[in-house]
Amino acid sequence: MKLIAICGGTNSGKTTISKKIIELLPNTFLEEPDKLMFKYTDLCQKEIFENLGIEKDPNIIDRDYFFANYENVKIWQKTIEPFVIKDIEEQISKVKTQYEYMLIDWAYLPLSDFFDKCDVKILIKSDDSNREARINSRFNGESNEQYGTNQWKNETLLNRIKFNQKVSDDIIEKFDYIIYNNSTLENLYENANKIINEIIKK
Q1: Which domain CATH number covers 67?
Q2: How far apart are the C-alpha atoms of 77 and 104, rounded to whole Å?
Q3: Residue 176: which domain range?
Q4: Which terminus of the chain, N or C, has fewer Cβ atoms within 10 Å?
Q5: Strand, coil or helix: what is 193?
Q6: With the C-alpha atoms ordered 171, 173, 178, 182, is the resulting torsion angle positive or negative?
Q7: What's the pLDDT score for residue 141?
Q8: Can you give the pTM of this predicted structure?
Q9: Residues 173, 4: Cα–Cα separation, whole Å
């Protein structure tokens, strides 16, 4: 089974590209560790705050701490990473005989040692202004699954946009492909098609 990493910041277009890749490569299993991160954030809250060296204020939501600065992002991610990786590896064991590819859609994958285990690494990049526009159109102060709470500070949202793009930008030379998502959906799909054709040929 080939492992394909899909990385990029919040609302860069990872989910859109992931859906297109699955359409083009039907024998692909989609793994979404970003969802696992918030599961293990809740389960490991005590350990996370101990590693941050912070006493949690009950009036401040967790994510305002995690995205306060980039160092906090890395500590948060590293605390829960072993549990996330364990889940990914268990999933690989379950599906490796049924699928030819596993698509790992994870913004924070470049911070993990598991990144180097991926056979193909794809980065989705989009200008901050475009990503902010997308996040504003999807988040209207209402609770939803992706953002988890309607109490997010605007500063926290903007930091999330900045930091989870920095995760990939810091090691941009390690990516096999970079797709720039600042144009039309048609252009995005065209770039995805080119990459998938190259992956199939390998």
Answers
A1: 3.40.50.300
A2: 16
A3: 2-201
A4: C
A5: helix
A6: positive
A7: 45
A8: 0.85
A9: 16
- The first and second tokens of residue 101, run together, are 């590819």
Q: Is 5 exposed, middle or buried (0-12, 13-18, 19+ CB in 10 A)?
A: buried
Side chain identity at residue 188, one-letter code:
L
Q: Which helix (H) or strand (E) holds 3?
A: strand 2-8
Residue 188 in tokens: 């995005």
Contact present, 21 and 119 (Cβ < 8 Å) = no
R_g (Cα) of the chain, nearest Å: 17
Within 10 A of 42 (CB to CB), how many other CB atoms are there? 11
- Structural domains of the chain, count: 1
Q: How far from 25 is each of 21, 130, 174, 180, 199, CA to CA, in Å?
A: 6, 28, 23, 21, 10
